[in-house]
Batch of 4 targets.
Target 1
Amino acid sequence: MASHRKYPQSETDRDTAVDDAERMVGEMNYKLLFHNCEHFVTEILTGKAWSTQTAKLMAFLSGVALVGGLIVTVIGALAHQSNNNATQHTDRDREHDDDDD
């Protein structure tokens, strides 16, 4: 397989890339995120399967998960605080009712 070249520069490089691609056809189990057509091409051209699109998507999803986790944490803290305030209010009402008796 051709190794560590960005783009085929000569006719020989192009022929080698085509030979590598033809040899690799059928070897790859296609997976949208982890072994797609971009992985296939970059492996032929550089010797390393890589997808910039997949990397960007994974970074985006990580950010979404982080923000989602923060939102859930804030909502949980607010709910806990609201519950504590309601409990304190109920306790004060009971004390006030006891004083009336």
Target 2
Amino acid sequence: MSKGWLSWTRSNDKAIIDVLVEQAENLVKATSTLVELMTKYENVAECLSKITDMEHEGDEFVHKLFSIIDQTFVTPIDREDISKLTSSLDEILDYTQVPLTDSCYSKLIHPLYL
């Protein structure tokens, strides 16, 4: 398909849905890592690094999705709904880091030491 003056009118349904799926999968991985850390209390630095990397990757998904939406005339879902969905997924991912900040995590006590 050539990139003519009407190329902006094409629908990017697959690209939009694919990014939303990737973003959701990234969120599941991050929350699974958080659950694993909170239940096993092992490899704290490694888990923190993984979650931080996944959070940055999640930010990239948001930017990528907004870029696709800006270049799309017809979206498979209402633009505002896509925006709210991707922003909500990103916000949840941001919250996975909260328990792992130095000030919060240092106050957690391993159950064996109670």
Target 3
Amino acid sequence: MSGKAVLSEDRLAEIEARLGRATPGPWAYKDRLGGGGCFVFSEDTFHVVAVEEDEEAAVSVPLGREDAAFIAGAREDVPLLLAEVRRLRALRGALEPSPA
């Protein structure tokens, strides 16, 4: 594994900014009663972040721009963050002394 950083400081700042603008977490999801999708909400405030709708949905909750940007960014952010964690763990492992 390369010692070169996977994430630039600019990219980390972008991720951190999206996180700061999104609804505070932790987030959870639940299946809607009677089927018909699920919803995502803040466990602390119970603010609904997103609802997967179907044709029979009685309630529509708009997805805020900040939460939408956070969700959309997660698809690329999470793999990069995982790669960076793995890279740093490998570096740490290479630096730790071997048992005698």
Target 4
Amino acid sequence: MQHPFINNLSEKSLEDLQTTISELTKKYTYAARTGNGPLMHQLSMAMDSYRTEYNKQMDDLIKKQNINATVSIEKSNKL
């Protein structure tokens, strides 16, 4: 679920997004340890928003670089 007050994350770089996700994760862990359910819910929504944008930008980067994301598992008979 996206956080309703977080708009237009497309201007942020991948590094900024990852840094923010890490900071939110630390805050979420603290909220969980203290049993603050409403704060956990808000942080979860914020992390979802940032993760969604991060994944979108990573997908775009992979498409730009034409990276083949499939892995071949065929056994080679060469030793």
